[in-house]
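I am writing to request your help with a piece of structural work I have in hand. Thank you for your consideration; the sequence and its tokens are set out here:
=====
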Amino acid sequence: MTTNLFTFIGLYSRLLDTAASLLKKGDAFAKAQGVSEADMLGWRLIDDMAPLAFQIMVVCNFSRQWPARVAGLPVPEAIEADLSLAGFQTAIAEAKAYLATLTPKQFADRDDVPLTVEIGTGMTPTLPSAQWLTVFATTNLYFHLSTAYGILRSKGVPIGKPDMFAGGL
């Protein structure tokens, strides 16, 4: 089945806008509560889960790296989770700018191109490019963005479901 893979570029851009909005609201709340930026970026849902900074890092990395892989382009260098709030906002803006450089032609006829990627330790599946983008990458983007949302909500940040669509529908 052929999918218009380029449509995911707009989706990923909107998800980045949502991440930026959530960070802004989290920052405003943290400041009002006297919570440091570092502490806010270290918030977790539960002790053994990755912190807010990690969730935002994954959103930034996946939104750039997976479209690049699928389009057969050089994969942008990953950002790390040790950025400041301003650093994350810059990374989000840079990810959006990168997505804006991509064209439909780069994704044309790429659905069934086999792509082998190492994920985790010892997992190196080969899947059609469309499956990587539409299932693996997109599911991970929503998971990590939803986890960031959950972290902020659990700390009392006044956000609701509409904030998950801050980047648009």
